[in-house]
Amino acid sequence: MSGGQQQMLAIGQALMCWLRYLVIDEMSLGLAPLIVKRLVAAIGELVSRGAGVILVELLTEVAGR
User: Fold this and answer.
1) What is d(CA 60, CA 10) in angstroms, rounded to the nearest whole number?
2) C-alpha distances in angstroms, 2 versus 6, 11, 29?
3) pTM of the predicted protein model
């Protein structure tokens, strides 16, 4: 699997669990911009359900949308 595919798999596995906290480092690394936007929406849903999220990201203009 490519690096981007591995990244999507790891994030997908984390999103399937009941999470209290989630730490993500460089979520956009190796992923297409459309996938990153979808992940940001999914993480926003987790936050709205009460999960705490720490997102470390170099591309802040993508993560902030």
Assistant:
1) 21
2) 6, 14, 11
3) 0.68
